[in-house]
Amino acid sequence: MKTKVNRIALLPLIGLLLAAPAARAADLSVAPLYKAPPVVATPAYNWSGFYLGANAGGGWSTSHWDSTGSFNGSGGVAGGTVGLNWQTGHAVFGIEGDIDWANVKGTTTSATCLAGCTTQNDWLATARGRAGYAFDRFLPFVTGGLAVGDIKASTPGFPGASQTNAGWTVGGGLEFALTNNWTAKAEYLHVDLGNMNCGFNCGVTPGNNVSLREDVVRGGVNVKFGGGN
Question: Which domains are present in the chain?
Fold first, then answer.
């Protein structure tokens, strides 16, 4: 009888021992799970906006005189830039204008120009359209439009001649966004300023035409107002 009573007395203790693991499992089943913070994607760079800038580089010219043939020249260019971009999707369209001081010149001698014939370009301006495809902060582009500049032709002992001509230009380049407002670019332009007539001012026949073409490579920086991220 005593043994039976002891067993009955132990029943509550056994019940508690059996219930404890179930309680712990229930607690674990409702424990909150840790969630990592959501990843916020950085928006792509927006190229839209107005910008001002500066550029500098070099030019390599080819000039042709009727009396002497073709010859090459070279020199530096530097100036200012203004432009406006508009972006839709990855496509970027814009207009850009610039005016550069230039010191691009070349000289040759021949039987008809013993003292030397020189062609020089002192300034160059362009007004161009641009079209590019944006890879976030990288913008490769093509460009083309109007070019305006002077053609100077001279030979020692004669007055020479200078004329402002309108021609055309085409080229391309790559622009990179350094910050939300500052960009850097490298570009190439082929420029054709046509020709002028120097005549007796260059000491040769009246029908002497002088032409000028240039290949310009330059880098630049722009500060942009609007767009960014």
Answer: 49-225 (2.40.160.20)
